[in-house]
Each structure stands twice: as C-alpha cells, then as structure tokens.
Design goal:
Elements (H helix, E strand, L loop, with lengths): L2 E5 L2 E4 L4 E8 L8 E6 L5 E7 L6 E3 L7 E5 L4 E6 L8 E7 L19 E6 L1
Parallel strand pairs: 2-10
Antiparallel strand pairs: 1-3, 3-8, 4-5, 4-9, 5-6, 7-8, 9-10
C-alpha cells in the first residue's frame, strides 16, 4: 500500500526559503522515480521536479530551475528545497511516485497521491 505524507509547508515572505519533506512507504525510491507537484488555488496540478531512480538525474519545470532542488535520503524521504520564493509559488505541494524508474513520463504516469502541504508566499 503506497503512502505519502508531505510536510514542511507554511507561510513565508517573498524571497524566502522552505524545505519540504515527503515520507513515503510501500515502494522504494530505488525502483520508482519520485516527483514533486503543486496545485495553486483555482488552477490545475502541475509538475515541479522529478528525481530519476535509474539515473539519479533531476528535472525541473522551467519556472523552478535555479530556485528549487529535489533530493532524497538513503531511505524513503524526498525533499524539495525552495528558495527565492514568489507569491505565485503559493500552492499545495505533493510528492508522488512515477510508474517507472526514469522521468520520461513526468509529470504524467503518477502511481499514487498522498497528502500535500500548503505553502503560502506573501508579497
């Protein structure tokens, strides 16, 4: 049974930083790539970053490049370090495993969704 719990969200001023964590169980990061996603108020869910299980490479949406960093530990926690936050980054952030060990299908082919964490960036 795949379970995911994101945490670390909160209220931050524009230009600030936050680190999100996502604890996962029911699958291994060695077998499935993991992605971060977000959903802003009134908008659809979008991809933020992906970490490939097979290649250990990272992939970012254009607006996140240079500001966000996805990483993992040796167990089953994935992180999203966010800096230079902007009001438009306000959203609920989720992590989710991909259905394969690379990021070629990202942001599609999500295996399961868990609880997200709310990030609010004030101007």
């Amino acid at each position: 049974d795949v379970q995911l719990q994101a945490s670390g969200g909160g209220l931050v001023q524009a230009g600030g930083s936050l680190r999100l964590s996502c604890a996962a169980s029911g699958f291994s990061f060695d077998d499935y790539s993991i992605g971060w996603f977000r959903q802003a108020p009134g908008k659809g869910r979008e991809g933020v970053a992906c970490l490939s299980a097979k290649y250990r490479s990272t992939h970012y949406a254009d607006s996140m490049k240079g500001r966000f960093t996805i990483s993992r530990d040796n167990k089953n926690t994935v992180y999203l370090q966010m800096s230079g936050l902007r009001p438009e980054d306000t959203a609920v952030y989720y992590c989710a495993p991909q259905g394969r060990d690379d990021c070629y299908s990202y942001p599609n082919d999500v295996l399961a969704w868990g609880q997200g964490t709310l990030v609010t960036v004030s101007s």
